[in-house]
Design a protein that fits this description.
Chain lengths: 233, 30
């Protein structure tokens, strides 16, 4: 039964390297965020929460785009590897969305005066979170590999619409959340050191995402293989 | 010391703590 085995090179060669790179970039990004970056002119020190809040949100976007691509891959080819990638990315994306919400809430209290408020960015992010939790719940309802993967893929394709909605939500209505300061027309509007620190954070979170993905996908592939083996027996 | 220090510490501890816990969970899950 090697047909569903996870690519050997990924699990043996790249995985430890990604783990090492994750720890190294996390340490560098955290040192830059807490020591090297200047305090904000208006918010002071507490603005440093941005360096975990924004990369969490961006990594969640990346994860859900990967769910979308893997879902298309499954429907197109019916190769179980795509379904494993989709569920791995959805689970990790839910984690990063939760962290963006929690870090955002912690940042909101000292700056906005509230832990939570019903404004467009927060509402759309909460909806995105609930939809992908629903995706994971839907998967757990069935153990039929093919049917489950197909149903999940449909959700995985539809739910990606959340990503542009969340990103653009700050430009709608009277948003309390600040507007994009990096991915905006006219280029980044940020102090150079703050921008460099934010980029370091995004790199660290992306490398970590890749590491978690390799580990979580391998886990799912092993599960698939067990199901297939039980079916053959 | 900055009055908002607890918020900064909480945000970093929760984010990195959760990610580390998840990474460890992937090593023990089957």
């Amino acid at each position: 039964m090697t047909t569903t085995a996870f690519p050997h090179v990924l699990s043996v060669r790249i995985r430890p390297l990604l783990g090492l790179a994750s720890v190294a970039t996390a340490l560098i990004a955290t040192a830059m965020a807490l020591i090297w970056a200047p305090p904000d002119a208006v918010q002071g020190q507490v603005q440093r929460v941005m360096y975990v809040h924004v990369p969490s949100a961006w990594t969640a976007y990346l994860a859900f785009i990967v769910v979308f691509l893997a879902s298309v891959g499954w429907l197109w080819t019916k190769r179980p590897a795509f379904d494993a990638i989709a569920v791995a990315s959805a689970e990790i994306g839910v984690l990063f969305t939760a962290l963006a919400l929690v870090a955002g809430s912690i940042w909101a209290k000292p700056t906005w005066g509230v832990w939570w408020t019903w404004e467009p960015r927060l509402i759309t992010t909460a909806v995105m979170f609930v939809m992908y939790v629903g995706y994971l719940l839907l998967r757990s309802l069935s153990s039929d590999l093919e049917g489950r993967a197909t149903r999940a893929a449909v959700i995985g394709i539809v739910a990606v619409v959340n990503v542009p909605i969340v990103h653009l939500s700050v430009t709608w209505m009277d948003a309390l959340h600040q507007l994009p300061s990096v991915l905006r027309p006219g280029g980044p509007a940020l102090d150079d050191r703050m921008l460099a620190t934010l980029i370091a954070g995004v790199v660290a979170f992306t490398v970590l995402y890749a590491w978690l993905m390799v580990a979580r996908t391998a886990l799912e592939r092993a599960r698939q293989e067990r199901v297939l083996r039980a079916r053959d027996a | 010391m900055d009055a908002n220090l607890p918020f900064i510490v909480a945000a970093y501890a929760i984010v990195w703590g959760s990610l580390a816990a998840y990474a460890i969970s992937l090593r023990v899950r089957r």
